[in-house]
TrEMBL record:
Record's keyword annotation contains Manganese: no
Protein name, per record: 6-phosphogluconolactonase (Cycloisomerase 2 family)
Species for this entry: Krasilnikovia cinnamomea
Domain of life, per lineage: Bacteria
Keyword field: Isomerase
Amino acid sequence: MAGGASWARRGRRPVRRPGRTHRGLRAGLALLVVLSLAGLGLLPTSLAAFSATTSGPASSFTARATFGLTQTVGCFSHNGSGGCGTATGIQEGESVVVSPDGDHAYVATSVSNSIAEFSRNASTGALTQLASPNRCVSNAAITNCTTVSGSLDGVYDMAISPDGKHLYAVASRSSTVTAFSRNTSTGVLTALASPNKCLYDSTVSNPGGCTSARSIAGADGIAMSPDGDFVYVAGYSSNSVTVFSRNSTTGVLTQLAGTAGCITNTTVSGCARGYGLGQPYYLRIAPDGTSLYVASYNSDAVAVFQVNTTTGALTQPADPNACLYDSGSTAIANCTSAKGLSGAYNVAIAPNGKTVYVMGYDSNSVAAFTRNTSTGVLTQLASPNACLYASGSTAITGCGSARAITGPTSMTFSDDGLFAFVSAFGANAVAAFRHDNTTGELTQITGTSGCISTTTTGCVTGSGMRYANALTTSPDGRDVYVAGGYSGGGGTGYVAALNLTH
């Protein structure tokens, strides 16, 4: 972890979640990274913007011999530290999303307990926080923000509908899913009216204006079907995945009836029994909508689900393909062992839907799998490409090492799938890789161009990237935004706009 950030661990869980008491928590052509900080101060908790340029057709690895990554606009922090401008409601960014039209970006935060709202300049990638009172929506009063009382305590993830008209946010401490209408012109978020403001777990009190739902305690991951008809929620404390239908006109969510509405890691009355769902964090759905993958921290596993695209219902494949669990962990019935899944934290799926990647936070690794597009079943890549582990951490047999991926938290791709980016909480960094669309192999860009970090040696130096937690690619493929932060480390967060113009 030389040159990277150090962070403590309490038992199995990384202590990067101080607000949640139940968590502690290759085919290589050079990527030329040129950082030119403009000091514009246009990105939050630490929103750093990067632009990148490529030459040659996007379909050709060889033609893309030149690839530029440039930090061209400033960053934000919650207090103006780290050479960044100041933004409101961005302490400990956990998730970042860009609207389908590319005009707005939103950052979910677990310490500010809010969703910060920004307009986006599609030409430069720069962000500007919306004017008062719409700088953010927050769980409690924050100056220049709108209060959505009780349902945004510990916001961890968000999903925007394909038509851009609604945004949904999960909050772990309030055990809620809050629904917002979104003004597609201004980007302003407005909570739905009672009783549809939120869904709350049936074991906790109604925060007001909400409807009860089953098995969403500790809600911290959310995904939406590509057609916008269904929403899936990971419940960290419920050890569950829940399923909701969505009214595309009103935005209202309704849990599926009976056992179709929830799947739990152990037998729970009214829910179906699942495997590999011990304390799930994030979940992601395949581009074709037929498969859902769930990263489960305590199970050290990724759970696999087949999706009925008509009803939204989930079914795990038969033994031994219901999940994959870390080979050094306790075996899970109906599942297969794999490498690099210790502390499974997040999932990423390549744009073509053929490969799936799982971030193993505790093993400092990114595990790689091919995906059967008919069944959703995952098969780990053969040695030496089964996973990547952080240089300086414990080596994993069958895997290769990579720089600046200590504590990997998120992953995203260029729109053509030829490049992949990994955020690393422990390295204060974003690592850059070539991605083979056919084999799924990842090859880190050589030299300092293979990573950008505020602290890690051997990387290009960037601003506003401490404690990187989340990544997303803008719909136009121009920028990648990084959000992050840690209350014990100043609460800064990040957005990096990786301009992938061809």
